[in-house]
Amino acid sequence: MGIWFLAVTAGDSVASLMVLSGVDLSTTPVVAAEGALAVLAGLVLFLRHKRVDAWRLTSP
């Protein structure tokens, strides 16, 4: 859960910095870049799933 909250906080921080610098977050290139980054992150996790599984704590 901690990683989830950290990811949400990081995303909110980046979005707020972009808005403060004048970027319109509703344009097609920005939405496409966000989607591409999400797909890339998912692909990295998929390719590294054995290492991610090794990091998990085992349940009793």
SSE order and pairing:
Elements: H1 2-20, H2 28-47, H3 49-55
Entry keywords:
flat, mainly alpha, 60 residues, single chain, 3 helices
Describe this structure in words.
- With 60 residues, this protein is mainly alpha-helical.
- 77% of the residues lie in helices and 0% in strands.
- It contains three helices and no strands.
- It has helices at residues 2-20, 28-47, 49-55.
Approximate helicity band:
over 70%
N/C terminus separation: 19 Å
Mean pLDDT comes to 85
Strand content: under 5%
**Main sheet summary:** none
Short description, anyone?
With 60 residues, the chain is an all-alpha fold. It is 77% helix and 0% strand. The longest helix is centred in the middle third of the chain and has 20 residues, at 28-47.
